[in-house]
Amino acid sequence: MDVYTAIETRRDSETCAPEPRPPREVIERLIRAATWAPSHRRTEPWRFTVLAGDARSAMGNAVADWMAATGAANEGQQAATRVRLLRAPVVIVVTQVGTPEDATRDREDYAACWCAIENLLLAAQAEGLAAHTSTGVMTEFAGAKQYLGLEEQDHIVAYIYLGYPPEGGVTKEGTRRPAVVRWEWE
Ligand SMILES: Cc1cc2nc3c(=O)[nH]c(=O)nc-3n(C[C@H](O)[C@H](O)[C@H](O)COP(=O)(O)O)c2cc1C
């Protein structure tokens, strides 16, 4: 698949087939594609945690238990957290090595992580997978960072849910407004 086709046909898909699980070699290719992203001064700030099978509920339960212990969320939110990561056969948690002593680098490294994520999503599209990107509170909870073994200054950037497309395929419409561009083209 050429890069323009991958860019224009990729759609975020909240659902995917519960099985089969994409093979490990495919996931390795996606992560390799992610690591070819640019990063200023080649900091390569991205890290990846791949969760499949029971590892998904292990993390969900650990974060829900942390919520209960700290009062960070109500019972409904705890219950949702226990099952959230089960929405796809594979979840890649993309994290960033943080540098609080250098705010510019920290911001640039966060941007680089999103470049890596876009590479990963385009590679997933080329591999025929469905992918969903999620941020929100699961990137903020200290309990999630602890579970992943992150340092205080590190960041959870996003959770990428991956599987084969649901029955009927990914049907989400993909449109974009025309680019807003001011041309100064002498
Ligand atoms: C930085 C970022 C954060 C996102 N976070 C979420 C999220 O927390 N929940 C969600 O449902 N989708 C999330 N998405 C996916 C977007 O909702 C999705 O990309 C958008 O609807 C455009 O659709 P498309 O990706 O199919 O073109 C996120 C996307 C990006 C780039």
What characteristics describe this protein?
186 residues, alpha+beta, binds flavin mononucleotide, NADH Oxidase
The CATH topology annotation reads as NADH Oxidase
User: What portion of residues is helical?
Assistant: 40-55%
Measured between the Cα atoms of the first and last residue, the distance is 35 Å
Strand residues, percent: 15-25%
What is the oligomeric state here? Answer: single chain
Q: Cα-atom Rg, whole angstroms? A: 18 Å
What's the helix-strand series?
Answer: HHEHHEHEHE
Shape: globular
> CATH architecture, please?
3-Layer(aba) Sandwich
Low-pLDDT stretches are: none
- DSSP strand tally: 4
Describe this structure as you would to a colleague.
This protein is α+β, with helices and mostly antiparallel strands and 186 residues long. The chain has one domain: NADH Oxidase (3-Layer(aba) Sandwich), CATH 3.40.109.10. 41% of the residues lie in helices and 15% in strands. It is built from six helices and four strands. Strands 1-2-4-3 form a four-stranded antiparallel sheet. The longest helix has 24 residues, at 103-126. The mean pLDDT is 96. The structure holds flavin mononucleotide. Flavin mononucleotide binds at residues 11-12, 133-136, 172, 174.
